[in-house]
Write a structure and sequence with these properties.
By secondary structure, the protein is mainly alpha-helical. The chain has a single domain, classed as Amino acid/polyamine transporter I. The protein has 17 helices and no strands. Helix 4 packs antiparallel against helix 11 and helix 15 runs antiparallel to helix 16. The longest helix is centred in the middle third of the chain and has 38 residues. It is globular, with a radius of gyration of 20 Å. The two termini are 29 Å apart.
């Protein structure tokens, strides 16, 4: 039975998969908490800029590394090849646990919008359904993601149009005090919405001509996402103002109501649920590929290496990831899941930038900026997220040390 994946994705499909992971539920759930942390409209826009700069550095590091090492696994592979097996393992560990929490957060967002009284049950059902879609092959996943991205962009465009049509508040209107710590924490929360561009890199083994496709697809997807987020943030600020935005648990529906577009509210609700499903689809796809890569190297059970002979997907890894996400979605709180996910993903990208440093002097300034940015945003997150994330990363280090000790003492 082969363990190699089929290369079927071109630039367009790779961009769409990246957009499906970025232009998803993050913009529906992160804008309010980020505005609260930032303290003002100016602070929110500054935070968006900070998150975009860090994301750009990470995107370019990921793109160049993926072109050099076009195998499934993303920074797990890059860290291993550039820095050593421990750093590759740590990146893979941080990605799998962080993105598993992110999968649960997206599933819970679906539940919160579709059936608030049964959010956990709906979340589990969403995980089961999308795991089945991914099991059927990456091309089917790319096709469904294309439809979801088109629908979500249409919903966001409608919110932007109606908000700008009646909005009277300047997006730079004063609010609370703007502080460096608040801006960094807001940027860390907004980074949650940007992080999907690495999904392209983790699919490196399924992309045609990866040396050309990946460096083109990653910046295109990131640039589109940044433009969308900036338009949505500014338009919502003009109709709600910074204080009301900070207090809003559902800012896009509140913006539609404030703009007198009550007809748009149910559309936004559907759009948020569909966006979360799109993010969840891409997240499960990426986590399962990193799980496959780690299993190939013996860091996870080798039974997960199998690739389905008909569908050409790592079916056991996908089923295992789906099962774990379903358990977390049945028991976790969405806010805790988001904070924990952000910390793990920033650790992952920190290792990506450290790996990009080894590609040569021309890559080092951007890699250094990205590494510093990841560290600053990770430790600016709420204290509970930092402590929980640090604890799980430490647990991964302990597991690595125990495994190495067993290897050395084995006959």
């Amino acid at each position: 039975m082969t363990s190699e994946l089929r290369r079927t994705l071109g630039v367009f499909d790779a961009v769409v998969i990246g957009l499906g992971a970025m232009v998803g539920a993050g913009i529906f759930v992160a804008l309010g908490p980020a505005a609260e942390a930032a303290g003002s409209g100016t602070g929110l826009l500054v935070a968006l800029g900070i998150a975009a700069v860090v994301a750009y550095c990470n995107a370019m590091a990921s793109a160049r590394l993926a072109a050099r090492y076009p195998s499934s696994g993303g920074t797990y592979v890059y860290g291993r090849e550039c820095l050593g097996s421990f750093w590759g393992y740590l990146a893979g560990w941080a990605f799998v646990v962080g993105k598993t929490a992110s999968c649960a957060a997206m599933a819970l967002t679906v539940g919160a919008y579709v059936w608030p009284g049964q959010a956990h049950a709906v979340a589990v059902a969403a995980v089961v359904a999308l795991t089945a879609v991914n099991y059927g092959g990456v091309q089917k996943s790319a096709l469904l993601t294309r439809v979801i991205v088109a629908l979500v962009l249409a919903v966001l465009a409608a919110v932007v149009v109606v908000s700008f049509g009646v909005g009277e508040t300047s997006p730079l209107a004063p609010g609370g005090e703007l502080t460096a710590g608040g801006a960094l924490q807001a940027a860390g929360l907004l980074f949650f919405a940007f992080a999907g561009y690495a999904r392209i890199a983790t699919l490196g083994e399924e992309v045609r001509d990866p040396a050309r496709t990946i460096p083109r697809a990653v910046p295109i997807a990131l640039g589109i996402a940044l433009a969308v987020y900036a338009l949505v943030a500014v338009s919502v600020l003009t109709v709600l103002g910074p204080a009301a935005l900070a207090d809003s648990p559902a800012p896009l529906t509140d913006a539609a109501r404030a703009a007198g577009a009550g007809w748009l509210v149910p559309v936004v609700v559907v759009g948020a649920a569909v966006a979360a499903l799109g993010s969840l689809l891409s997240l499960i796809l990426g986590v399962s590929r990193t799980t496959l890569a780690m299993a190939r190297d013996g860091h996870l059970p080798t039974a997960l290496v199998a690739v389905h002979p008909r569908f050409q997907v790592p079916h056991r890894a996908e089923l295992a990831v789906g099962a774990v996400v379903a358990v977390v979605a049945a028991t976790a709180d969405v806010r805790d899941a988001i904070g924990f996910s952000s910390f793990g993903v920033l650790v992952y990208y920190g290792i990506a930038n450290a790996s990009a440093w080894t590609l040569g002097p021309a890559r080092r300034p951007l890699a250094a900026l990205g590494l510093a940015g990841c560290g600053a945003l990770a430790f600016a997150l709420p204290l509970g997220s930092v402590l929980a994330g640090s604890g799980v990363v430490a647990a991964g280090v302990v597991a690595w040390a125990i495994g190495r000790g067993r290897d050395r003492t084995a006959p």
